[in-house]
Amino acid sequence: MYPDLVNDGNVHQGRGWVKLEAYIQTPDVSFVKSSIVIQGGDAGIEYLVDNGRIEKVNEDKKWKAEANERIDRIRKNNINFRVTVPSNTNPQDYRIQIKLNKHAFPFGSMIKTDHVLEDKYARHRSLYYYMFNWATLASYYWKWSDGPWDHPEYTTNQAAINELKKRRIPVRGHNIFWGNGKYLPDEVMKLSTTELKHAVDERIRYVVAATKGYVEHWDVNNEMLHNHYFEEKTGDPYYSHHMYSYLHQLDPKVKLFLNDFSVIADGQYVSAYVNQANEYRKANVGVYGVGVQCHFPENHPPDPTLIKKRLDQLSASGYPVWVTELDVVVADENTRAQWYDNALRVLFSHPTVEGIILWDFYGPEHWRGKNAGLVSDQDYRVNPAGKHYIDLIYKEWSTHVIHDLNNGKIFSVRGFHGDYEVMVKYKGTPIKDIKFTLGKSDKTVDITVTDINGNYFF
Fold first, then answer.
1. Is the distance from CB of 295 to CB of 338 less than 8 angstroms?
2. What pLDDT digit, counting tens, does each position of 175-230 carry?
3. Phi/psi of residue 73, each to 5°?
4. Of 23, 193, 226, 375, which residue is 20 to 30 A from 166 by alpha carbon distance?
């Protein structure tokens, strides 16, 4: 059943007309005629169609330049430096080195607990900590949690979170519920409606007790455009509202997300997701943002024009967007590098996107196979896609500036948001080290060098 009309029939007759939109990519052949076919889902539900149309989306051939301009405008701000040095020293003997140490923008990946904790994965961790500053710990699935279904064992998860936090890596939790029978414990599928409601509340209490203060985000009920077990079992089309509301009540600081697929990657469910987001906003149940999975179709390049158009449409919900599960799939590693570039660039450039999480980076264990990885083979070879990703994070989308004072004691640098370190050198010798954070507004940094008996101080 089309997601805009989930649990419809008599339940939602009062909603009135619903606008359905999807994106269609035509085959790369000549054609002179096309048609729209509306196909219903469940028997006994009548669909009425008022009108329909197909509109052409023209390719934006200037998308990359436009994306780069947006990146400069929304991901960077001015750092205004004012340097004072002793009058008895020559400004040309001073050099100021400005370096971004850590991005404020979240670039992350899913990681498993064994990769964080086990000695044999030391190389995996080393690359992970170098490449990413956020994590999704996908180890909370109800069906596959260790221990009994009603009291899972999350000690290993907690140990992994503790290790990530030592590295200043915030953690997203994924997920508490997934309304598809094949992703639920067998015992849960046998519960009565009353028992299920009790089990849902008990699981929320249990998960909050185990994770409060340790995870930053929760994908609460996964893929609700596509899966509706809890609504169907309870007979309440808005039952998932209760999950969010109750979790928010117990842990008001953690940020709660909707999370779904086929929204940005292929555009089938954009209007459906906007409608769902608006519904949750109206219900006021504690949702912070919307997650878009971005599993791009295998052997099909991400289309920057369509990605931006879909993000523009989704931003109308008013919620911030997180890219929660990004991957592209193609065998040629140089092509893969370009496809990741296209996707990352347009996503990073969009003002509504607050973070980007890859759904793994290691090809041999990637859920979509080796042709999705940034790192390949058992020896952890950083392939061309991985090298290009690293170049984006550490070169193109980073800030490293050297300024000699003979070029001015008052100067400005346009820098990416994040944590900075400034090193002052006098005749090649480091004499001062300054750390600061650049946020979403311009910042002034005063540097004063005082010469007292040959010693230099802040």
1. no
2. 999 999 999 999 999 999 999 999 999 999 999 999 999 999 999 999 999 999 99
3. -80, -40
4. 375
